[in-house]
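[step 3/7] fold_predict: job queued, chain A
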Amino acid sequence: MKKIVFSLSIVAIFASLIAFAVYSQYQLRQEPVVYSFDIQTEDFSINDIVLVAYPNSLYVAGNYYLEMIGDNKQFDGIGFELSIRERSIMSLSQAGHQFDLPHAAAGKIYVDSYGVLNGITIRKNDIVDVDIRYNINGRAKKVVGEIKLIDVVKPFSSTGDRAPIIL
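[step 4/7] structure written:
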């Protein structure tokens, strides 16, 4: 009887090790999915937003920038937040007129803010909720919208310009 229990124990341990090895290889072979898009409002745009989704985390690249659209605009604060399933993935809040020196050059503000969010699973059918609030020429504005990630999956290779998502 002891031989049978011992043999079954060895078989169970061996099967568990094989299952773990197969699962580990599956996890290693999952390719990250890159999402890339621009958001455009009536007064400014947020360009080069890049999100890289891994099986259980999300990398938010810090190479995006804000660009003023048009002339003769006086901003007094800009704030925005991107979220997926009510979890914030990216936000920015700045007071004052951001598109003047020393904060910006040629009507552009470059943001160097990046990070990894662990414990979040992103799927291609998820929706990014966008909430943008800003003051311009003495008026408060609020822009909200949605971006379907399936529409902004970055292809393996691409050429040319992509159209911004206009909110």
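[step 5/7] annotate
The two ends are 72 Å apart (CA to CA).
The helical segments are 2-29.
exit 0
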